[in-house]
Each structure stands twice: as structure tokens, then as C-alpha cells.
Design a protein that fits this description.
The protein is α/β, with parallel strands linked by helices. The protein has helices spanning 6-13, 29-46, 50-66, 75-82, 100-114, 125-130, 135-149, 166-171, 173-189, 210-231, 254-271, 306-320, 340-343, 353-361, 367-380, 391-398, 407-411, 415-435, 442-448, and strands at residues 17-20, 23-26, 91-95, 120-124, 156-163, 194-198, 239-243, 280-283, 325-327, 348-351. It is globular.
Length: 463
Amino acid sequence: MIYKDKNELQKKCAKIIEPDGNDVRILDEAKLKSDLIDDLIFTAVFSPDKATQEAACWLIRRTGAALGIMSASIQSLYEAMGREELKGFTVPAINLRGITYEAAQAVFRAAIKGKVGPVIFEIARSEIDYTKQRPVEYACAVIAAAIKTGYRGPIFLQGDHFQINAKKFAADAAKETQAVKNLIWEAIEAGFYNIDIDTSTLVDLTKASIKEQQKTNYSLAAELTTMIRDLEPEGITVSVGGEIGEVGGKNSTVEELQAYMEGYLEELKKMGESLKGISKISVQTGTTHGGVPLADGSVAKVKIDFEVLEKLSALARSKYGLAGAVQHGASTLPDEAFDRFPAVATAEIHLATGFQNIIYDHSSFPGDLKGKMYDYMKTEFKSERKEKDTEEQFIYKTRKKGFGPFKPEMWHLPADTLGKIGVQLEKQFSFLFDKLKMTNTQGLVEKYIKPVDVPLEIPAALK
């Protein structure tokens, strides 16, 4: 049910949950999980009335807090990894581009079964646009899924690739930088207490020295870090990530990591002696976002340079106290690759396209809807098709952009269809958690993460 005004919303909530100042009191948890939470998230996403959407979002976030489900920073756990108190596992960072409420439930079901500790839910700057999911909507979908599945504890929301567009930066550096600053502000307000700054697009390989090549990258990363420290809520240290090599480009080197970190720390020191820096560093080791599609639409096998990844992770920890290196573009790798990441002490791994492929390619996904979506892409994005692309290659590379325009149709697929897709997603999440050595790590979150309940003023529609 999607509520069109605050009166409908308040009537539905009666005797299940009720506002109590700036908090929520839960009156009937069983009905909340079985019925109301579905209505709240669909209202938050699809209500035609903005005030009602905002009210539903507030109710979801504060209801989550009442149940102990709060946004948290992974900073203290990563600091423990930097001290080498913790090792032997790789934290998964999962991008959910479509049917986010359903997909997040699959993550939580797999995590609960496997007693999995830290799992990051993330969305990139580009994904926010083409999936039509602003940070607060994404946060609410994840929190609602936690409520629905009975998960309790902190959740980790992350801004992935909050990236500077190189062409836009060249045209107007101040405007493009401000756009990323505005997004950081919006994300932190929505409870994203983990932010990956991606200024690696500004690395200039034509410069003579490696430090000169990285200068704009590390200088702007330091500036954005300072802004994040100004915005973070009291009692929370936002976990910030940096990046030294653009994914899909040349492989990163030890020298680049050193040049970036030396320059970054120098710049950060100028802005404040006690400012805390990044907690991890993203590197390039041979992957490409989404994988490389072949002529038939299948994905080419990629060879990751695990030796480089291991060296960079070790240096990041031993010299700079970081959790280690971060691997992007990994979800389409062959199954046998995933247990290598914890073996070489990779701190974090980003996973996205593989889950998108499960949704699109599932036997239960309606063929007529898929055809409609593909026809839309052939028309709307035909300018993006390269001359040598087969139709299969073109569709594979652009179908991620169907999640936004067709969000209503996908969220309203029959419950049986969504359920079957959810089962397949859950199976894949369980597989990955096992391979990444994340099973039975729940106690680490309880030991190292102390969530802070950040106040959230009740919206006018509920007063």
C-alpha cells in the first residue's frame, strides 16, 4: 500500500507504532514486520506527496533506531585491522541497484544465517542518478529490510565512488567540486557514515614525477576529508576512503601509494594537526567495473594481480595504519577467485554487477518487461553504442540504466517472482560471505562498533 497523504499514513500506523517526541514507540512488532514496514517503504519511495514520503522515511529510520538498527561507521573496526589486531577476512561492500528492499532482505537473511559481522551497503554517485535512488531512500530501503528480516545491530551505509568527473572538473573545477561536496552533505544527513572519496580521475600520468601525477588527487581528497570531519555527527568518526588508481586503468604501484599518502598527509596536516585521515585505499589490480562483455554478451575472464594487491595492503597497514587495500569491480570474477582476497589481506571488496545480472537473467524475470527495458535502452542510449559493439555487448553495458526508469514496475513485480529472485540473491550472498571468510564474525561488530543514535527531528507532517 502506498499512502498519498499524512492522514492515511497516521491511520495505518495507529496501534502499531507511534511518534514519541523525536523517537518512535513500537506497540506491535509483529504487525510492524508482517505488514506496516512494507507499506512504509513503498510510501517512502513512491508516494506522490513529498511530505508523506518524508514522514514515512522518518518513521522507518526512527523505528529502526528503536529496535537497535542504527547507521554506523566502520572506522574503529578498520583501525583495529590497521593495528593488525584483526585479519583473515575481507569486508564485502554491496551495491544494490534495483529492487533494493527485496535485495537487502536477501543480504540480511544470508548474514543472519552465517552470523556475519560487518557488511557494507553502498551506492555510487553515478548509481544514485541512473537508479533514481537518493541517499535517504537507499538508507530507508536497507533499514526497512533489516526490520523486515529481524536483523538487529548497526548497519554500514557507504557513499561509493563519490567521484570527481574529470571532464566537468576541467571545464569548471569549483562547480564540480561543489557538486561532490553537496552529495557528501546529503549522504551524511541520510546516515552514510562511510564515504569513499574518488578523485583518482584527476591523476595526470603525463607529469614527470609520481607525486606530481597524484597531486590534484591527494590535495582534493584532503580538502574533502576536512569537509567530512566538519559534517560528521558528534560521537561519530566517518570512515573515509581514498583512491590512487581509476578502476579500469593501469595497475597501481607501491610508489603511487606512497606518493599519494605522503602528499595527502602533508595537505591534511596543513588543515588541522589532529584531523583523522582515510582508513583504507582503493587500488587498481586489473578489474573493470561490470567486467568486459564479449560479443555474445558473456563476460571475459579477468586476471587480478593478487601479488600487487597483497603488497599494497601490507604497505597501507604497516606504514600508514590503514585497514588495507580495497578491490573494486569484483562481482563478475570467477567463483574460485574470491577466497584469494582474504588470503592476501584485502580489507574490502566492492560487488555490484553480479547481483544486477542475477536479477536480469533470472528465469522468473518477466520476459515482456525485460524486452520493454531493452527497447528503451536501444532508443535512449543509442549514442553510447560503440561501432564495434554487438547488440549483446551494448545491452550488457547499458542495462544498469534501466533500474531507475523502470523502478515502479520492478518493485511491483509479483511477490512470487521477487521471492524467487531473492532466494537466488541470498544464495550468492551466502557464497560470497563464506569465500570472504565473513561467517561467524558477528562478535567483531559487537566488540568494535559502538553505534551512536543521531537525533532526527520529527517532520511537520507528523507533529
